[in-house]
């Protein structure tokens, strides 16, 4: 990436002399230093890292921010994403309390290209988003965030291109080594203990620095947990005119509703309330070997191999109450978007209180082999060739599969109600706290194996030619092939009505535990409603292995995995979903660079063109279905044919992408920048997969599914950037920047309705007769009537409690809502401002860093509309404030990060209903001390999320909670020795 143009000032030159070990700085800067009498600034640690990053920002040819290692093997944060969030315009998504994915300037993880030493990296996520939790920071020397584009940049990063730099021996000649040890105490786990982290790096050069080797490795264990409160598959939304007679899930227009929504309002009802508790164990192993050889001064060759592995094991328990949408009694918030503050149902006969458990594991594994050669062919011509083969794979790592859910239930629930007036939804269940182990029986289950494999072969040839007093030209060719293969096979038992008998299980397998004391968030107390509500405070944390083994030995099932029964996963991936995509891209680019002075003001300008052509081929095989069974009150299960449906599709596109960057130092240490570029963001890998996958469970109204579209075109963006930067002291600066992105071709998901020739058993003659006699559409009453009066009908199986869809019974075809991506004709504008400041207070050791990013979009989600919309996801303001101190061998840092509320999805499992992640802030700290008596030895203490904040997601209104996840603080104590 040729994106730096050094500004010749005394300050910048002196910094390069001190910090020249950074691979992010241009090599020729130091060559010019000898011509001037300058002061060399000796800076180390936190301050040195910040000055290195400031120097990269200053010397770049566009808008670039960066993070630099404080020392060899010492990055500011253990997690790269946690470090990146300190940069203006960068926000992160967390998984189990740890930074995972990165958004920049409002564009989500799929629209930010992640490269490792300039190479496009495969991902284990199945999408284009890179999971930063897979990579350790100990071998990282720096991270560059390119917010403006140049012709030499690979395409795909509309928000940014993020380049991760690893240590190379020639970047720091001589013997360098470091070893670190750390003990981690994660407060989120109930069962885990303190865990170890080990890291080391060895680097040396030999034979007059003609040969170099660098070897780094890290091993980390982490035990963590979380508590979640959920509203299952989401909220169902209705117009105010809809009631329980016109829509399943609608509410009555009578005095059972307090403050019922009016006809001009819209309202939503919850599908369920769930409490889920997880324990997780993670083992992360990273390693890198770099060999460099310079046979002559004009040639440098590098051979490197990078390995990353992240093993994650999860155990879960949950308790849930599904609402059956019988006539309900509710208390409502005011419109126009109304929500139940209290939603309550009472049942004529007891229904299920479900308690499920899971035990599963996955492995994320990546490897990259690369070769690079740089040749200074003449004084004016430099040529570079780079090639790499990289793979990334997500796969099962547990005998029970990559995910599973084994469910038990007690059919003792006489009522269910949830108070949504607080942050935490509070569930009350009639009879729930009286449940005993003897009440439990086995219901349905799912054991799944999924794997995604991505492979990239990339070849890059770059050249740079310097003209005499006429600037330079960069040129190059890039060939990239990306293969993605995703497979999934499910072994699902749909015995949701229960098998066996209550009391089959050993009661010692079902130890009771409490619920309410596990959450810190505030919840309601049902004081808004009349009546008695028994708040659920009982859950069985039952023994997954014991119940699974007993069930496998004693209960039969119609499906089977590798173990010969329905209580284990299958590795017969060819039986169900098997998708393969190949994306081939060819690119050529040319860029002219020129620098000079105007009225004594040095400037540099860069004009570039990049041509890119891409071909996409997708082949898919998915499971086929030919029938449906009504197996429980709210579940209709599809009947598989055992055969697959095959499909191959293709697509292609090409673009000519211009770029322009202009930088001028109007007065000493004040730089103005302007940039224009056209960029593309490629479709998500999952969006370009072929084949239609049907959800195996439907409700009485419709089924669901998803389909890919290989003909999708990329998101297009025309980008404008302006910025001003003032470097007023050796380690201090302020900057302000404006950006605007005019986008087109946004990819949005719409619902395509199809029938697939499958009949709906809750629609025909039997169903209508039951409704007419019983005077209700309540599922339990309808099913009981059909079993009692149509036992001799061929579609009715009283013993198995199932009703099959049948043309003979005049059943209607079941409608499927297929979630399908397509390019939208709409155009959108995203613009914003970035403000940043860094200041050190003389020689006191104190410093402060602060930044704020404002992001705006001309399209916001309209919560009042029930139709699918084209609003942008991920748009939010962000802010950071960091206080640092460094003196007398002591270093300390307190960092505050904030992200405003943002739309994270336009759809729930119930259809086009929004999801908002609420505003979140976090405080982290780190303290270290250099032991004076042992040179090179440092001890340190770190704390993350020390105020134990939680993440909350809601729907159309704040009362419509979808997920509340509490994790906790994480502390570590360690030592590092460097020599």
Helices and strands, with pairings:
Elements: H1 10-19, H2 45-59, E1 64-68, H3 80-84, E2 90-95, E3 98-104, E4 112-116, E5 119-120, E6 140-146, E7 160-166, E8 176-186, E9 195-206, E10 211-230, E11 235-239, E12 257-258, E13 266-270, E14 272-293, E15 299-322, E16 328-332, E17 337-338, E18 340-376, E19 381-396, E20 403-419, E21 426-430, E22 441-466, E23 472-493, E24 512-513, E25 539-540, H4 544-554, E26 577-598, E27 601-632, E28 635-667, E29 670-681, E30 692-694, E31 697-698, E32 703-707, E33 715-729, E34 732-744, E35 747-754, H5 765-774, H6 779-789, E36 796-797, E37 802-804, E38 816-823, E39 827-840, E40 846-857, E41 878-887, E42 890-899, E43 902-905, E44 915-917, E45 920-930, E46 937-944, E47 950-954, E48 961-966, E49 970-978
Parallel strand pairs: 4-7, 12-16, 13-17, 32-38
Antiparallel strand pairs: 1-6, 2-3, 4-5, 6-7, 8-9, 8-49, 9-10, 10-14, 10-48, 11-13, 14-15, 15-18, 16-18, 18-19, 18-20, 19-22, 20-21, 20-22, 22-23, 23-26, 24-25, 26-27, 27-28, 27-37, 28-29, 28-31, 29-33, 30-32, 33-34, 34-39, 35-38, 36-37, 39-40, 40-41, 41-42, 42-45, 43-44, 44-47, 45-46, 46-49, ...
